[in-house]
Every structure is written in structure tokens, then in C-alpha cells.
Amino acid sequence: LEELEGQMGFYVEGTTLYDINGNPFVMRGVNHMYTWFSDKMEVTAQALEETGSNCVRIVLSNGEQWDKNEAAEITHIIELCKEYNLIAVLEVHDTTGKWQKDDLLAAAQYFVDMKDALIGEEEYVIINIANEFPSNNDTNVWKEAYLDAIPMLRYAGLAHTIMIDCAGGGQYGKCMEEAGVEVLASDPLGNVMFSVHTYGTAGGSAEIIEQNLLYAIEKELCVCVGEFGFTHGDGDVDEDFLMQYCEENDIGYLAWCWKGNASEASYLDMATEWDGSVLSADWGEVVINGPEGIRETSEICSVFEQ
Questions:
Q1: Is 247 a catalytic residue?
Q2: Cα-Cα-Cα-Cα dihedral sign, residues 262, 265, 266, 268
Q3: Taking each helix axis from N to C terminus, what angle separates 41-51 and 71-83, rounded to the nearest 10 degrees?
Q4: Of 144, 178, 175, 149, which is closest to residue 162 (Cα–Cα)?
């Protein structure tokens, strides 16, 4: 494990994520549904660079629910992200709606299987093991699954910062208060950060947004908003407050999502054209060009500075 410590790129200390140069890195970016729109990766990366985004969260599949994304694809994604000055946050989406420990461990195993494409990229890649596991608010299920999953990655030789979505489909921030310290302690590298997904449940008001992030901050845990919308099936979101609070407190945010949502959720498409030439007025424009939006607040990771 000493060797792994020397292999780390990004690393976590307290509430802060640092890049390999020792500079704090505050995520400002979006989600891209790669596994269903793999052919749109380059046009999306190019568009995101133009917005000033400093990272992109990439939807991948381990083959459990959708077609598996192979190692060559991960290599290609990382290369494109580097070309366009984006940090890649890679996640397995097949755990969406799941609550069995085996589903989480299958996502962890995917990254172990992909390790040859990942080792050596620690300064450019964050591994967000699984999307929104578990789908219920069972902190114990969440904790026990990650206590097994995190060491799997480390003993396979992966030293990357690991991002962990909250329980409750990402929206049960209280799990960080209840077991976040224990989950972090399961990593021999101490290189774990947490992610809240902020829709109507976790983002319905300023008070709820702040509380969900304070669950982490008060425990000295590093947190970001890994997904958020301006509205969703579970209600309206106070996205203006969320972006303002994240900016004031150096918390990263990643909006859902660039383009490609199913018709019933197409209101969450930030762009109406893949190249970003047209942004949706009530969502894309707000996140990209708003006062606490990406263009105004994003700083490119120092790893890309020549």
C-alpha cells in the first residue's frame, strides 16, 4: 500500500479534494450519458471545454443492465477528456434502482477488471464506483457494501480518489452523518469523497440543500453534488441557492445532464444541440451562464497547465 500512496493523483484531506499539484480542485461540470451516446463523446467534450467546465461525469455500464463498456472505450474517454482539459469522473450506472450488496460489488469488480486502462491515470480520473446505490435509505446496506468494495479497488492497485454516492438513490445525505466516517476509514489511503444527488427530495429548499451538505462538512468529509436538476419527478429544486452555496463553500457540482434524456425527462437536457450551440433556456443557460454558473466559477485543473 505504500506503493499506492505514491501512485495517488487526486487526494482528499478533510473536506477538500486536491489535485496532484496540491491545488484544491472544485468540480464544475456536467454528466454525459456515454453508455447510450458513445458516439457523442467527442462533440460533448469539445462543447464542455467551450463552457469552461473542468470535469465531466461519465455514465458507463458493466453489462448488468446495459451493454458493457470495454477498456478500450475507457482509454478513449480519458484521452478525449485530457484533450479538452476535463477531469473524468467514471461511474457504473447499472446499480441505479438496486439495493443488493452484490450489485454494488459487481460495479466495483468492473473497475478492477478495467484497471489496466485506469492505473497511471490517477491525476486525470476519479472513480465514482456506482450510481445511486442503494435505491433505499438503508445506511447499513450502504455502509456494509462499501466497506467491502473500497478495499477491492485498493488491493487491485487502484489508487484513484473514490467518489461514493449517498444512499437513497443519491439523495439520503444523512448516511454521511451516520456512517461516512466509517466508510472513509475502510480506505487504507483515506482517499474517499462523497456525492449527494440533488433533486426534489435533497434539493427542494435552501434549508434541505444546506443540511444535506452539512452532514458531510460537520464530519470533516469531502462532498460534492454529483447530479442536480432544476426540477424532477419528486419536485422542484432550488438550483440557484445550490450553485450559490457550492460556490461560497468551495463544493463541486455536476449538472444532469448535457443531452439525451428520455422524452419524459427531456427538460433536464442542458443542450438542445450536442455541440452546445443552443442551450435550454431554463436549465442549460442557468448552469452554464448564470451568476454562480460554470462559465463564471469554474477553474481548469492545474494538471492541464503547461
A1: no
A2: negative
A3: 30
A4: 149
Known active-site residue 227: yes
Q: Which one of 49, 122, 178, 227 is the catalytic residue? A: 227
The pLDDT score that the predictor gives to residue 306 is: 60
For the chain, list residues with pLDDT below 50. Answer: none
User: Mind listing the pLDDT tens digit for each residue in 177-236?
Assistant: 999 999 999 999 999 999 999 998 878 899 999 999 999 999 999 999 999 997 887 788
Per-residue model confidence (pLDDT) at position 135: 86
Active-site pick, 132, 178, 239, 292: 132
Cα distances (angstroms) measured from residue 175 to each of 69, 138, 141, 243? 30, 8, 10, 22
As a whole number of angstroms, the distance between CA 276 and CA 272 comes to 7
Q: Which amino acid is residue 244, in one-letter code? A: Q
Distance between terminal CA atoms of the chain? 31
Model's pTM, two decimal places?
A: 0.96
Strand-pairing partners, residue 107, are: none
